[in-house]
Design a protein that fits this description.
This protein is an all-alpha fold. The chain has 4 helices and no strands.
């Protein structure tokens, strides 16, 4: 019983540390992209907000996600998938900033 409790505690600490690290990373990315987003014109902001990956890329990401969920990714596929995840995160932050700029322009 004590081993299970210790394992559960270690798992919870691991999750907490990953969450804190991710938040710090997200904050740093947000600060960097905030400066970049100040350069957006309304036209650029609209294009960024509307950006979507092409069908081939979306299909590849879905394929990798399925394999990841099933524990079947090869190491090279894991690296590829992680690259997509990082890129999607960065694009999402930029899209959020673009939508904020567009909303401010509508209110003005």
């Amino acid at each position: 019983m004590r081993i299970r409790q210790t394992a559960a505690l270690v798992s919870m600490i691991d999750i907490a540390m990953k969450t804190l690290t991710k938040r710090a990373s997200d904050d740093a990315l947000d600060r960097l992209l905030d400066r970049l987003s100040q350069c957006f014109t309304p036209a650029v902001a609209r294009r960024i907000a509307e950006f979507r990956a092409d069908a081939e890329t979306q299909a590849r990401i879905e394929e990798l996600a399925t394999k990841c969920n099933e524990g079947e990714l090869k190491e090279s596929e894991r690296r590829e998938y992680e690259s997509y995840v990082r890129a999607i995160h960065m694009i999402s932050v930029l899209q959020s900033k673009a939508r904020s700029l567009l909303a401010k322009n509508r209110k003005s």
